[in-house]
Amino acid sequence: MKNQEDQFKKVISHAKEYGFIFQSSEIYDGLSAVYDYGQNGTELKKNIRNYWWKAMVQLNDNIVGIDAAIFMHPTTWKASGHVDAFNDPLIDNKDSKKRYRADVLIEDHVAKIEGKIEKEVKKAAKRFGEAFDKQQFLETNPRVVKYQEDAQAILKRMGKSLEEENLADVKALIEELEITCPVSGSRNWTDVKQFNLMFGTQIGASADSSTQVYLRPETAQGIFVNFLNVQKTGRMKIPFGIAQTGKAFRNEIVARQFIFRQREFEQMEMQFFVQPGSQKKWYEEWKEKRMLWHLSLGMGEDNYRFHDHEKLAHYADAAADIEFRFPFGFKELEGIHSRTDFDLSSHEEYSGKKLQYFDPESKESYVPYVVETSIGLDRMFLAVFSNSLQEEELEEGNSRTVLRLPAVLAPFKVAILPLLKRDGLPELAKEIVDDLKWDMAVTYDEKDAVGRRYRRQDANGTPFCITVDHQSLEDKTVTIRHRDSMKQERVALSDIKAIILQEVAVSNWLKRLQ
């Protein structure tokens, strides 16, 4: 756990030092759980969003995108269930006066059990060497099997209690597991209570005529209320999807873990409308497709896993998370949900308008079922960033900090470095910048020794460095350095663009999905 904490501190520190993420309003001591993206962070975030959008919208001829407003008619949130049911179960520790999400306390306890399993696996792998069969060990080792059974039983009971809104049993489970307050170490807990997460505000010129509205807690409802607008104007035939990215807002009382859980965040969601009865097939298909998208970035298959929900939302008949191994353990990165016809049916009821699809083949109208994929852009940023940040030991006792971002996502694809600030080298270097910047994000750096500049670009995650030297003036060649291998080779000026595009082009990465 200590190593995980240290690694996470390095992630947060590196994010600030290299212009990726800053505390919001830092000069005024900041605002809790709200962050600003710096110059490098903005580029990385944009590239992640673009990678998702191209895979979801551009490569699927039956998925289109929209951009719905943040403010919506307040009845929207009554129909969606958010006014009555969008709650977190909270519990206070009487000694520390700190408030926690009860379900997160229990999940953290389960994470410790999973940590024990990982320790047993590592010890066994060391003991048996190449003969070690991990799957067999997980299925047959008595201690590990017991840990797994305990973890599953805890999550199942919590899910059932939350589904039945049996908050007394949630507290009883916390007491039975002897979960202590992380601050005070005591087990002096209050009862568990529900807390609504929506931010409310007013629209209108005066207090008398103003209307109570909400900052949207999710982007999905903007898709549902526009279902018919998109279907008719786009002449869409079922099955089809509507995607969008955008800001959402939740009044998280226990916001923590850097950008993992914020009050203002960005979602990338797609709602896929299908014929009733076919939702389970599409649910399984989208689970597979979304995992392939994640794996296409090459961040390690072992860092992902599916987690089926024990507690289903009021609208779902199936739900699973794609969890990622963050520095603080496996946590939800993306959700795939079979939402049935709850959303469109509910908006039909509250609006009095028909939200149905006329099937030209069967000559029947019906309310479509929905399969949703929903990923937090900020969480995806944290997954990519934390997984990429590495300390690497080099020869002769040296080391380097390198941000091994997938090249397709890196803020800058190439840094152009003149060896010296004279003799015409900066001029040639800037000519290269002017040529490349039409096709990729390029940065120019002439300060400090070349070795130090290489280290700076490693820490920024830049996949390539081009060094312009005196030989470049003579034979039109440059040195290209690869971030990951640190390999250097001499290439012609005319070949630079093709070499780099081969490694960073979105199309080449997304072809891995086929």
UniProtKB/TrEMBL annotation:
ATP binds at residues 250-252, 260-265, 332-333, 376-379. Signal peptide: none annotated. The keyword Aminoacyl-tRNA synthetase applies. Its EC number is 6.1.1.14. GO terms for biological process: diadenosine tetraphosphate biosynthetic process; glycyl-tRNA aminoacylation. SUPFAM superfamilies: Class II aaRS ABD-related, Class II aaRS and biotin synthetases. Substrate binds at residues 101, 218, 265-269, 372-376. The keyword Aminoacyl-tRNA synthetase applies. Residues 177-406 form the Aminoacyl-transfer RNA synthetases class-II family profile domain. InterPro entries: aa-tRNA-synt_IIb, aa-tRNA-synth_II, aa-tRNA-synth_II/BPL/LPL, Anticodon-bd, Anticodon-bd_dom_sf, Gly-tRNA_synthase/POLG2, Gly_tRNA_ligase_bac, GlyRS-like_core. GO terms for cellular component: cytoplasm; extracellular exosome; microvesicle. Pfam families: HGTP_anticodon, tRNA-synt_2b. Its main location: cytoplasm. It is an enzyme of class 6 (ligase). It is found in: Cytoplasm. Homodimer. NCBIfam families: glyS_dimeric (TIGR00389), PRK04173.1 (NF003211). Belongs to the class-II aminoacyl-tRNA synthetase family. This is Glycine--tRNA ligase. It comes from Aureicoccus marinus.
